[in-house]
Amino acid sequence: MASAQPAAAPSGDPNGLQPEEAYTHKLPPLSQRWGFVRGGWESGGTRILDGDSGKMLGLVQTTRWSDLALDPAGKAIYVAETIWSKINRGTRQDYIAVYDPVTLALLSEIPLPGRLIIGAMKNNFVISDDGKTGFVYNFSPASSVNVVDLEKRKMGRVVELPGCASLMPVAGVGFASLCSDGTIATVALAGKAPVITHSQPFFKAAEDPIFDSYIYDRGTGTAVFLTYTGLIRTAKMGAAPTVGEAWSIQAAAGLRPGDTRPLDINWMPGGRQLMALHRKTGTLYVLMHRGEYWTQKEDGEEIWVVDLASRKVKKRVPLKVRASNLEVTQDDKPLLFMTGDEGATIIMDGTSFEQKHKVERTGGGIIATVGGE
Amino acid sequence: MASAQPAAAPSGDPNGLQPEEAYTHKLPPLSQRWGFVRGGWESGGTRILDGDSGKMLGLVQTTRWSDLALDPAGKAIYVAETIWSKINRGTRQDYIAVYDPVTLALLSEIPLPGRLIIGAMKNNFVISDDGKTGFVYNFSPASSVNVVDLEKRKMGRVVELPGCASLMPVAGVGFASLCSDGTIATVALAGKAPVITHSQPFFKAAEDPIFDSYIYDRGTGTAVFLTYTGLIRTAKMGAAPTVGEAWSIQAAAGLRPGDTRPLDINWMPGGRQLMALHRKTGTLYVLMHRGEYWTQKEDGEEIWVVDLASRKVKKRVPLKVRASNLEVTQDDKPLLFMTGDEGATIIMDGTSFEQKHKVERTGGGIIATVGGE
Amino acid sequence: MSGFDLDGMGERLLRRMAGNSSRRSFLTKLGATIVAAPVFPLLPVSRARAAKPDRSPEAKTEFARNAQTKDDTKCNYWRYCAIDGSLCSCCGGGVASCPAGTEPSPVSWVGTCINPDDGNAYLIAYRDCCGKAGCGQCGCDNTDRETQLYMPQLNNNVIWCFGTSSMEYHCSTAVMVGKAQ
Amino acid sequence: MSGFDLDGMGERLLRRMAGNSSRRSFLTKLGATIVAAPVFPLLPVSRARAAKPDRSPEAKTEFARNAQTKDDTKCNYWRYCAIDGSLCSCCGGGVASCPAGTEPSPVSWVGTCINPDDGNAYLIAYRDCCGKAGCGQCGCDNTDRETQLYMPQLNNNVIWCFGTSSMEYHCSTAVMVGKAQ
Questions:
Q1: Is B61 in contact with A88 (Cβ distance < 8 A)?
Q2: How much helix, strand and coil, in percent to the nearest 5, is found in chain D?
């Protein structure tokens, strides 16, 4: 190389002209300003986007049938996933992959007895508030929950849970889920055998279902539920949950409540991950569209900004591009992340609703934020 | 079910109202009118399209790093592929999957010692004319060829082939390939050790390379080569190939020949699978675009229809949508199949150049036809 | 909503399945009424209201009002009222049959769809065809009476490739089970 | 065309690699001159013409005439003259560095690119970062002096994830090797 001495870097070139060594980056500590954006059906991986710069910081390996969860203390990124040894055949492998949040190195794989096979959805893999226990929903097609010791990185017991799905941790108790009989099932894990108790029925699972992508707020131990017609309820979780009364999101905006009748066109909630909650302020963001009943998967045309305390829609934000998934950062100046059919991520100020960034080709999947799950 | 007797099928409904049993279809015998269209980077599988109806008939499982080849007698569909037991990690598995062409059932897997990892390309997996031997290119990153006994479904010997790639079978001899020293290497397999002989150099691999997606015609034992600047040559293959003189595709259209000089804008060949040959008529179809030299991967704006016997461009066909890959059926009324960035397949009459079908979401990969490889 | 009569179907299915313990065991675990077609088991559907159906245009969903009975390669073909996925009719299969090289799942999610020609409601089993990379053609996502994961047999997101040799999703069929009432 | 002098680089590399038999063995098999950066091996590049370079605008490729030196997240950044893939600069890495959780391949394909600021040609190693699903951002496919598979070190289609713990392709970097002459 003696005969090929490069010149000094001309001004403007960020990289210069000296021979270089390759190396691998590390990530800064997990930030509240990040969004973990899942690729869609065809696009593998979960892209970590910095909400301030709109830049991609890295990628967490997530295959099609996987669920990502963040350790509440930020010490690990967990991916519960299912793959086969020969892609479309061979040996089925269910496990939780444990990744270092700084190096994104694979630290461990915790084998599981099974998992639900479904496109990425919220609430199928949740973690206890202390970060010690993971709950992985299984469907074989009988319903059960894998209770995983995340400290020892070891599968624990399997709790059979007929007729229920979509999990939330319950601090000091175990976990809870929604059931087809319109109840909440709370599973207490203190004893040798799990003890399942059901709340009184409070919704009609076939007539006006609660979206299973509901929100659980660790800070207050509260779940926020929304039904197809637009009824909002909160439930204080515990050994026996206390379910609040239902109120209409449409009425909260000064419109008539949603209805199940055909030909009744109204603003209706719809999408996949169609709600996000800013915990500190109790601000709920909901994707809404115009349509009849049974349009629960239709992408949102507007974001409705709901103040849970006063039960008022504070603002309606029209969207340039319809969104299917929505999440919000949990810091004091929240950012909204949205994805949709287009496969791009829109990052928007959660207060001024100004669009900050549009990141192309991220995939149109669900989104996670630190403290937002 | 006695209480739920369905009514007779109302007219117009193709399916009726009687309770049904599910079953699985079989394919009709391999047809010359079919195109095997490879999905792109994100879209797995190779879709079998019927050129007449534009309908999808089935899908051959092909993962990202795979090459499909058709048994010349139509008795099998072969897929040489490489996967890992945990998608992005784990045990590497290289093999030829053997599929029944009627049921598309996986009949066998023939393990291989390795393969080139590359996006789908022609000429990395070819089959001898008698259908008994498969040749799979390997790059580790040293070049070699796996010789596979397709009758016994067993890996045979590995032939090291430094500096050469892109294979064609040579009847009664073995196989041949193009080399970086501008020669054809012919590998004779009759003896205990393979015997590699090189032709005289006839092209400049770094200056005006021959596209490695060249065409081999089993019927005449002839290869058709095209260089970046647009020079066409044929070579009669055998124990020692006879390479014909080069002539310019641009000159054959009455234009000045292509050149390597910058700023010299001309019609240039470009794309991935940028040539197709209708064997019976000696008609060569080439994707051409306007540009300078070093635009060899630019998609085609026109198809140039070349008569190899008279060395004339018979027709120039402008394309509505640029194409990257092109193949032609080998029957008497040939159909052209084309794919490009858009991920759709265009099916066009190969004589009138009328567009017959546009099939959306097939992926933009390479194409195979029966007798066209 | 799914006001169909399930009682007539249950007994025959239970007899048929007596010889299939593994399948029976998962169904038994759910501990509910069982729905079945003559030749294959479906997952239990919880008993819905027995209300008399109203088939007037005013009572039809948007999908039902716009559904057609002629072309099963379009998303608005009547049987597809709650399908989610690629239509097997566009993949080399048929409305009730799988493309070559794929395998129908023995279990499925279900929909209740109204045939616009006779105005009757029919129970449709959406059986996935499994074993190969996604077909990718004719993607549809209809959601009539489609509920959430805690009623999986009425949720159209789950991959129903149970009991097949491979769980890779290829496409979805809409198999006629019978009149809903 | 690749008119760069490789002789000065070869000897040092061969010394460095003497202790690495597996890597040496594959390089030896190719039996050609070896190109190397100070710290990592590249595959051999066959000796190209020793012609004097002409750096006038008339001699520059379209890419070189339009290349810029300011933004390494754009396809027309000068070092990317023969890159094919996602730019690691858009994926959480840099022009010469891999995103977290991926591993740079020890071998690569190469390009010779002209820096528009000084008019000199530099040898660039396009090292893939490997181990995870594709980044998917900033896809580029530049083809200056890019040849075909029989010259793999100058072909930009091959996945260069040899010698890494996983061969899954994530993104590509453009590492400065040195002045081409």
A1: yes
A2: 20, 25, 55
Domain that holds residue D157: 6-179
DSSP state of B362: S
Write out chain D residues lying below 8 Å of A99, CB-based.
101
Tokens representing C19 are: 């010889």
CB A241 within 8 A of CB A235: yes
Which chain D residue's Cα is nearest to B291?
Answer: D62
Q: Which residues of A touch D98 (CB under 8 A)?
A: 22-25
Contact at 8 Å (CB) between A31 and D142?
A: no
CB contact C48 to B (< 8 Å): no
**Nearest CA distance, D80 vs chain B (angstrom):** 14
Say yes or no: domain B31-368 is CATH 2.130.10.10: yes
Residue C153's pLDDT is 95
Categorize the per-residue pLDDT at B92 as very low, low, confident or very high, splitting at 50, 70 and 90.
very high
C7 pLDDT above the threshold of 70: no
Q: Tell whether C160 is covered by a domain.
A: yes
Mean pLDDT, chain B, rounded, equals: 95
**Contact of C78 with C114, CB cutoff 8 Å:** yes
Q: Residue B44 — pLDDT band, cuts 50, 70, 90?
A: confident
Q: Is residue D96 part of a domain?
A: yes
| Domain count along chain D | 1
What confidence tens digit (pLDDT) does each residue in C74-95 have? 999 999 999 999 999 999 999 9
Is D1 a domain residue? no
Q: Indicate which CATH number applies to the domain containing D109.
A: 2.60.30.10
Residues β-bridged to residue B347: B337, B357
Q: Is D160 a catalytic residue?
A: no
The angle subtended at Cα A96 by Cα A94 and Cα A99, nearest 5°, is: 140
D54 Cβ neighbours under 8 A, 6+ residues apart: none
**By mean pLDDT, which of D50-54, D138-142, D151-155 is the weakest?**
D50-54
* CA A191 vs CA A144, A194, C38: distances in Å: 18, 6, 44
Q: Is the peptide bond before D152 cis (omega within 30 degrees of 0)?
A: no
Intervals of chain A under pLDDT 70: 1-11
Residues 44 through 63 of chain A touching chain B, CB cutoff 8 Å: 61, 63
Q: Which residues of B touch C97 (CB under 8 A)?
A: 22-25
* Burial label, A282 (beta-carbon count in 10 A; 0-12, 13-18, 19+): middle
Asked if residue B106 has pLDDT above 50, the reply is yes
pLDDT in the model for residue C18: 29
pLDDT of residue C55: 66
Whether D161 and D126 have beta carbons less than 8 Å apart is answered as no
Whether B24 and C181 lie within 8 Å, measured CB to CB: no
Is residue C140 assigned to a domain? Answer: yes
* Residues 6 or more apart in contact with residue C15 via CB below 8 angstroms: none
Q: Write the CB contacts of A46 (distance below 8 Å, at least 6 apart in sequence).
A: A36, A37, A38, A39, A59, A60, A62, A68, A365, A368
Is B88 in Cβ contact with D154 (below 8 Å)?
A: no
What is residue B41's predicted lDDT score, i.e. its pLDDT? 78
Domain ranges of chain A: 31-368
Which residues in chain B touch residue C137, judged by CB atoms under 8 angstroms apart? 47, 56, 360-361
Q: Tell me the count of B-C CB pairs closer than 8 A.
A: 157
CA distance B327 to B367: 6
**Interchain proximity D148–B205, CB inside 8 Å:** yes
Q: Name the pTM for this structure.
A: 0.91
Interchain contact, C146 vs A263, CB within 8 Å: no
Taking only the tens place, the pLDDT of each residue in C119-160 is 999 999 999 999 999 999 999 999 999 999 999 999 999 999
ipTM metric: 0.92
Catalytic residue among C109, C117, C118, C160: C109
Looking at residues B215-240, what average pLDDT do you find? 98
